[in-house]
């Protein structure tokens, strides 16, 4: 299908977001016709938007579940979708029906029994721009949603069939060929459907649109970026990520707008073009004209989307009350704005803040929150009974740099992987805030990110959830945790409460990875809880949708990877919000991939078993080998297991060689990869760091988290022979950022100290000097003759004589560590070198007595 010539202006950009060109999902069943436009009045406890109503307060006037009986809450039923998908969608409930979406299908199910009423797949006409969807909207018997391939569609809420009054297949309103797509959940009101395009990180020019609910005709659109003073188009950005709010009394439509593009560099902006980015905007719902806006982050260098729907409320019922709007975003602050004066009343931090007001420059800066911190996906909840706002946050920091010389992006960000590896982050916060003053009433620190929508009830409860799968219930006024239910999968977005047949229920979307992952993922499920639940709830299991025509099972499985790592070429080289995976070519082996996915280091989601099946993982390994690693003798990765060490020579030398080439030793004596592209920026050289990295494990796989040799430091040898220059890592990921003073039995991260160093109590961990590489190529040990020659070469060995080498193997802390290496990340003990340290010292003494002969073959 050709695009219409009347498409608004758009811009092409280089993607950083992992959602770029997830082209893996393609046509399912064809779109059909449906009965004519109908109508049914929603009930007061219905959820006609993903945030319940137009004001996005997420409050329900229900009191059957109370602080006294909430501990009796158990699972009533669940429906298992059995799809390898993202699941950051909200739920709708109308009458007795729940509605839920994924990227390629819409579902309706019984709100009390979880029975499937209908499932409507989507046929993709164009290449999808994302594998994500936030949900649908309900109006007068119809559902409305966006599709990843750029359409807005309308379905009959009773049958799931497309409305016959709309164009066949829906309305094409976004151009995925230049990065546009639909992620956000629309809202619908007075015969209009409101939805906007993303994704800012693709360099699109955002716009919010209104469509006629009966015909699909576009009624108006509002551009979220502006032309420059001389008519120059903006660099773009200003996408719409989540959903919207509306005041039915005034006819105002409100939206939170995402970041400008380029994500981390404001020196490239054309003046005046990004006034609406990271803003809340108020539009006339009838005409699309701007009423007013408030820009919370005027010069966003951090990708701090304000893309959370605003919450509308009144501070009191009397004449002194104020019409307020509360909005938050990834910057971690909650803004309260007087809608009459349009002046901010409060600005309340609700997660860890550090350097958040410091300008990012051309050196690495640690900032909290990072690009995946703060609030994502859902509005704050508001309790009109006590006047409090309840806000969920992610507590995750990142390192930022801005430099016009960085190709394409002109800046970069790296998450705080050391904190994640040490299980210190990401965590989450739930904060109760006085809706009038912004004062913090109470806070609760969750064990993982809080990004699911919260719900307040008439009985004084607050329902919340975290990405470790804990459904949390608090006394809303005090923050006392009343109960916690382990749901077995991440709570990423949808969480609602409602009543059916006089019974109050709580329903949640559970499972799947998201852009802000947690180790817990789990298979995709919609789970319903109630006071009459049991330990043996009803299970409804759906068959998986058929594979899209022309798309392999491996490509479909890779969609979960692409959300964070990016499409194949990006995943191989620079990654997305997660590191590149191009050098992890061992994962082309299905057995190693299964082992890895089943024991992933945090905060990567555990996709297997759960989201992915055995067959999925095997197909994924094949897809990685051909599309990401590009295995082959002339490609960046050989994808072959590390070569076996080989050496001749004397018996003493062969014993020494067996230790030096064991994983415990040679893993920290690597040679740089000549084929892989350099990774983030070195401010000293004003160029990217080369791919020179340590290895891990007995299989000698490249170090996770994209650890690099990075910067070197001067180190006096213990033998007093002069200075050597080990690698200490990059500024954002130094060796001792993770490696402590001892082996950590929980995380498996090794550590040690140097009793002879300047600070004997400090962690001692580094990568051996580049001159001491014991590989001929990445993963290929030097053969005995060459390693022996290098070991004796004083220009390469730290100016050491053989007697100094003997002292080194006898006393060096890292050599000693290799004989007490602790457990690995998989929880199993690491192997030690093939002979004891005493035998190694004896072999060295024998070799020196022989005159240090090297092998001749």
Structure characterization notes:
It is a single chain. The chain is of the alpha+beta class and about 850 residues long. About 10% of the residues lie in helices and about 25% in strands. It is elongated, with a radius of gyration of 29 Å. The chain starts with about 60 loop residues before the first strand and ends in an 8-residue tail after the last helix. Mean pLDDT is about 90; it is low at about 1-40.
Helix-and-strand structural type: alpha+beta
Distance between the termini: 66 Å
User: Mind summarizing the main beta sheet?
Assistant: 5 strands, mixed
CATH topology of the largest domain: Methanol Dehydrogenase, Chain A
Count of extended strands:
48
Helix residue percentage = 10-25%
Radius of gyration, Cα only, in angstroms?
Answer: 29 Å
Low-confidence stretches: 1-39
How many separate helices?
12
Strand order of the largest sheet: 1-30-31-32-33
CATH superfamily of the largest domain: Quinoprotein alcohol dehydrogenase-like superfamily
Approximately how much beta-strand content do the residues carry?
25-35%
**Total domains:** 2
The CATH architecture assignment of the largest domain turns out to be: 8 Propeller
- Average pLDDT works out at 91
CATH class of the largest domain: Mainly Beta
Principal-axes shape call: elongated
């Amino acid at each position: 299908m050709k695009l219409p010539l009347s498409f608004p202006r758009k811009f092409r950009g280089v993607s950083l977001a992992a959602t770029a060109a997830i082209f893996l999902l393609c046509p399912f069943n064809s779109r059909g016709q449906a009965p004519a436009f109908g109508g049914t009045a929603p009930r007061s406890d219905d959820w006609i938007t993903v945030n319940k109503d137009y004001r996005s307060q997420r409050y329900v006037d229900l009191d059957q579940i109370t602080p006294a009986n909430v501990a009796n809450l158990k699972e009533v039923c669940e429906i298992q979708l059995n799809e390898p998908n993202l699941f950051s969608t909200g739920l709708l409930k109308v009458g007795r029906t729940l509605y839920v979406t994924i990227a390629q299908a819409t579902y309706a199910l019984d709100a009390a029994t979880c029975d499937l009423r209908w499932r409507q797949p989507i046929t993709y006409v164009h290449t999808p721009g994302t594998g994500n969807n936030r949900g649908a909207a309900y109006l007068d018997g119809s559902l409305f949603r966006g599709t990843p391939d750029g359409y807005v569609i309308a379905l009959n809420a009773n049958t799931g069939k497309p409305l016959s009054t709309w164009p066949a297949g829906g309305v094409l309103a976004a151009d995925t060929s230049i990065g546009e797509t639909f992620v956000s959940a629309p809202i619908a009101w007075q015969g209009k459907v409101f939805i906007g395009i993303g994704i800012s990180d693709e360099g699109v020019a955002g716009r919010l649109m209104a469509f006629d609910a009966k015909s699909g005709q576009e009624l108006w659109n509002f551009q979220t970026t502006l032309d420059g003073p001389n008519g120059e188009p903006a660099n773009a950005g200003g996408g719409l990520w989540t959903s919207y709010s509306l005041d039915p009394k005034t006819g105002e439509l409100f939206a939170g707008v995402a970041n400008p593009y380029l994500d981390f560099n404001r020196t490239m902006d054309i003046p005046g073009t990004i006034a609406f980015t990271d803003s809340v905007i108020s539009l006339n719902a009838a005409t699309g004209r701007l009423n007013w806006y408030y820009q919370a982050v005027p010069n966003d260098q951090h990708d701090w989307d304000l893309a959370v729907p605003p919450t509308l409320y009144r501070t009191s019922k009397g004449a002194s009350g104020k019409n307020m709007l509360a909005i938050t975003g990834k910057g971690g602050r909650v803004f309260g704005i007087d809608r009459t004066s349009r002046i901010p009343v409060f600005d309340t931090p609700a997660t860890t803040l550090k350097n958040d007001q410091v300008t990012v420059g051309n050196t690495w800066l640690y900032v909290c929150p990072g690009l995946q911190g703060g609030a994502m996906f859902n509005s704050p909840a508001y309790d009109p009974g006590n006047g409090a706002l309840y806000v969920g946050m992610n507590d995750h920091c990142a390192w930022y740099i801005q430099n016009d010389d960085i190709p394409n992006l002109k800046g970069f960000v790296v998450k705080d992987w050391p904190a994640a590896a040490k299980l210190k982050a990401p965590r989450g916060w739930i904060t109760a805030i006085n809706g009038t003053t912004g004062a913090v009433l109470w806070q609760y620190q969750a064990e993982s990110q809080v990004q699911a929508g919260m719900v307040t009830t008439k009985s004084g409860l607050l329902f919340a959830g975290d990405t470790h799968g804990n459904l949390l219930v608090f006394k809303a006024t005090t923050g006392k945790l009343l109960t916690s239910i382990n749901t077995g999968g991440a709570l990423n977005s949808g969480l609602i409460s409602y009543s059916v047949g006089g019974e109050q229920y709580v329903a949640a979307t559970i499972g799947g990875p998201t852009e802000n992952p947690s180790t817990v993922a789990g298979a995709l499920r919609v789970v319903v809880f109630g006071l009459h639940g049991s330990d043996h709830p009803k299970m409804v299991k759906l068959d998986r949708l058929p594979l899209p025509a022309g798309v392999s099972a491996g490509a479909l499985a890779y969609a979960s990877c692409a959300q964070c790592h990016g499409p194949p070429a990006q995943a191989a080289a620079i990654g997305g919000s997660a590191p590149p995976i191009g050098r992890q070519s061992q994962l082309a082996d299905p057995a190693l991939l299964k082992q890895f996915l089943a024991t992933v280091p945090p905060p990567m989601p555990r996709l297997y078993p759960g989201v992915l099946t055995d067959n999925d993982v095997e197909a994924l390994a094949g897809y990685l080998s051909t599309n990401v690693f590009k295995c082959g003798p002339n490609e960046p990765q050989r994808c072959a297991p590390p070569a076996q060490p080989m050496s001749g020579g004397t018996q003493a030398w062969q014993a020494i060689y067996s230790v030096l080439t064991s994983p415990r030793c040679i893993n920290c004596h690597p040679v740089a990869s000549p084929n892989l592209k350099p990774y983030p920026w070195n401010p000293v050289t004003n160029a990217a760091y080369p791919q020179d990295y340590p290895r891990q494990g007995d299989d000698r796989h490249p170090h996770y988290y994209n650890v690099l040799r990075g910067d070197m430091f001067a180190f006096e040898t213990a033998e007093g022979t002069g200075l050597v220059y080990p690698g200490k890592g990059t500024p954002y990921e130094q060796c001792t950022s993770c490696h402590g003073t001892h082996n950590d039995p929980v995380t498996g991260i090794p550590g040690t100290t140097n009793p002879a160093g300047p600070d004997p109590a400090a962690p001692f961990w580094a990568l051996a000097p580049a001159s001491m590489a014991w590989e001929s190529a990445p993963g290929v040990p030097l053969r005995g003759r060459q390693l022996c020659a290098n070991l004796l070469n004083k220009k390469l060995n730290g100016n050491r004589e053989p007697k100094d080498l003997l002292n080194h193997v006898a006393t060096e802390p890292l050599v000693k560590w290799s004989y007490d290496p602790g457990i690995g990340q998989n929880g199993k003990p690491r192997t030690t070198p093939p002979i004891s340290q005493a035998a190694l010292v004896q072999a060295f003494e024998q070799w020196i007595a022989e005159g240090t002969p090297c092998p001749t073959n």
